[in-house]
């Protein structure tokens, strides 16, 4: 979406988008704000993104809790992380063709910001925040369920799980936190049978875990798994 007032063509795109979304705004300025990146103008969508992130996590938690009654807390946390990470959200935004509606500053327009995963993911969260303010929790839950239920119903719980380092990275990215550092603490044993001890450090959350293995990669995976369990527990507690 270019700078300036809304044209008839743009309004038509917005109307089509709302039909695709299954929700029509009473307060059109909320939709406008949700689609506005801070590089464009104020009011922009950062505060709406904050609200939408919280609403999305709450709704997704409720959906998977009811849909997978046999899964323990740790598995539910990992499953939720897969649904709310940056890639998942940006893919949904693209499926809704939100890239055609973004209001970006000239610099972001020229650098292809409308296709940047971080901007798309943030805008989708802002959209959910806008729907919540325009209506209520039940209505935004209905919109989220319509989008996510087909994805959740197609989940294969028997498929091979992602490795802990990948899961940890995706979870941190979904929360807009810096990626972890992996530090080799000690190596011991003979060259053909070494033992590595590696620490996984997440400074933003003051988390530090240690793992051991016969090579650096396996030690990192153990440390990442321990850190992932801690951060999932922390995130779950703060989302309740």
Description:
This protein is mostly helical and 240 residues long. The chain folds into two domains: 8-153, Ribonuclease iii, N-terminal Endonuclease Domain, Chain A, CATH 1.10.1520; 164-239, Double Stranded RNA Binding Domain. Helix content is 58%, strand content 10%. The chain has a three-stranded antiparallel sheet with strand order 1-2-3, covered by helices on one side.
Topology as a string of helices (H) and strands (E): HHHHHHHHHEEEH
> Based on CA inertia axes, which overall geometry fits?
elongated
Instruction: Characterize the main sheet.
Output: 3 strands, antiparallel
- DSSP helical segment count: 10
Q: Strand portion, in percent?
A: 5-15%
N-to-C terminal Cα separation, in Å? 37 Å
Using brief descriptors, characterize the structure shown:
single chain, mainly alpha, Ribonuclease iii, N-terminal Endonuclease Domain, Chain A, Double Stranded RNA Binding Domain, three-stranded antiparallel beta sheet, 3 strands, elongated
């Amino acid at each position: 979406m270019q700078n300036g007032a809304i044209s008839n063509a743009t309004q038509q795109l917005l109307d089509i988008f709302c039909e695709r979304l299954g929700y029509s705004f009473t307060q059109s300025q909320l939709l406008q704000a949700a689609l506005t990146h801070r590089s464009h103008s104020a009011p922009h969508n950062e505060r709406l993104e904050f609200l939408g992130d919280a609403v999305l996590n709450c709704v997704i938690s409720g959906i998977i809790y009811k849909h997978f009654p046999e899964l323990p807390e740790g598995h539910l946390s990992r499953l939720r992380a897969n649904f709310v990470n940056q890639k998942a959200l940006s893919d949904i935004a693209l499926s809704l063709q939100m890239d055609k509606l973004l209001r970006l500053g000239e610099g972001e327009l020229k650098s292809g910001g409308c296709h940047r995963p971080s901007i798309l993911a943030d805008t989708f969260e802002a959209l959910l925040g806008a729907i919540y303010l325009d209506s209520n929790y039940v209505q935004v839950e209905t919109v989220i369920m319509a989008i996510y239920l087909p994805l959740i119903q197609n989940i294969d719980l028997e498929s091979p799980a992602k490795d802990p380092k990948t899961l940890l990275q995706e979870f941190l990215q979904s929360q807009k936190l810096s990626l972890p550092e992996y530090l080799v603490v000690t190596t011991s044993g003979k060259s053909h049978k070494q033992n590595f001890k590696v620490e996984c450090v997440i400074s933003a959350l003051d988390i530090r875990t240690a793992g051991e293995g016969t090579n650096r990669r396996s030690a990192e995976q153990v440390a990442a798994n321990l850190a992932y369990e801690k951060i999932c527990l922390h995130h779950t507690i703060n989302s309740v």
